[in-house]
Design a protein that fits this description.
Number of helices: 5
Largest sheet: none
Radius of gyration: 21 Å
Strand content: under 5%
Helix content: 55-70%
Number of strands: 0
Distance between the termini: 46 Å
Shape: elongated
Order of helices and strands: HHHHH
């Protein structure tokens, strides 16, 4: 990547962005929907079929939605048996 950046004369910010994109890039993404809901599977299939037609504004909106969802912590669940046996979490 450094040689590519030098060849094209990219500034550091551009080079960092390009390097980050290269690390994230996987041109043949697969999504394992085993164990997910039918709605989640349908969404994955629909996205795979239509992503090439989505305008940049829609892509940016989807990124924003995923960014806000990803930052929410997962709730911790307590096992019922553990809470009955002295309030310990499992």
């Amino acid at each position: 990547m450094h040689q590519v950046n030098e060849y094209f004369g990219l500034i550091w910010d551009e080079a960092d962005d390009l390097s980050r994109l290269a690390r994230l890039s996987n041109p043949r993404v697969t999504v394992n929907t085993a164990g997910l809901t039918p709605e989640q599977t349908a969404l994955a299939n629909r996205l795979a079929q239509t992503i090439h037609r989505l305008p940049p504004e829609t892509i940016a909106t989807l990124h924003a939605v995923l960014d806000t969802t990803a930052s929410q912590p997962k709730p911790r669940l307590r096992r019922l048996a553990a809470s009955r046996a002295g309030g310990r979490e499992a």
